[in-house]
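Case 263 in the screening queue. Each case pairs one protein sequence with one candidate compound; here the compound is calcium ion. For every case the pipeline is the same: read the inputs, emit a complex structure as tokens, and attach any notable structural observations.

Predict complex for case 263.
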Amino acid sequence: MDLHKLDTYAKSLIKEAAYNIKTSLSSELIIESKSEANDLVTNIDKETEQFFIRHIKADFAEHRIFGEEGFGDDIKDLNGYVWLLDPIDGTTNFIHQKQNFAISLGIFKDGVGILGYIYNVMEDSLLSGSLNGGAYLDDLRLPKLSSASVEEAVVGVNARWVVPNRYVHYEGMVKLLQTVRGTRSLGSAAIEISYVVTGRLDAYMSMRLSPWDIAGGLVIAKEVGAIATNLAFEHLDLLDADSFIVSKPGLHEELLKDYIQLK
Ligand code: IPD
Ligand code: CA
Ligand code: CA
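Case 263 output:
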């Protein structure tokens, strides 16, 4: 399979899907809850995933799709070509703000990320990366990230980290918030990962993300030297939900060692 051809194909699907999403903004959304009241999905999330699946299945019959809304394949391994797709990452933003949401896509071959994309739909900016081919923001090649100190870091965390929770001891996070330069919370994991890759954030962490939230970002992050692991400093499993942290080198180790204490 020609990587360049696959890349061109994936980009054109993303652009068309994004055009359809933008067009849909003038009509009324059908909003439903999934696992709990605030876990939202709209008809556009579903239609966008179906759009990708229709095209991929027609053009690459042997490729499989691991999509958030469940219209793809039942994925139990990453053998062959697997597309990990979040049709709209940041659905709450999509509904409430009509901005700050992204299409997140990673293409893996036998478990190795070969192409990754995060398309910020309303900003019309495409972050992409290919295995050993570098990372790009539209046509601009991104430089490798250098390390940052905790004191000078702007970190992507949300308020849940500093109240009692089932994942981490919040006292360590209070200490972190008292030490860092600033914090931000954007409401889309994919966009937050894209901010780390482009140097707008120094780190981003989440207590629980799914494979489709991070797959595209992982491919891109690797190309700029960002470190991505779960909060136990282990390799990320792309078949299941896991905790997540992506950061500049050096900072990653410091955050996990000195501030984030898992329960
Ligand atoms: C969510 C967003 C959010 C993150 C959640 C994700 P969705 O994805 O990325 O920022 O905190 O954990 O589930 O549901 O909007 O695709
Ligand atoms: Ca998501
Ligand atoms: Ca989603």
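Case 263 observations:
- The chain has a mean pLDDT of 97.
- Residues 3-24 form the longest helix (22 residues).
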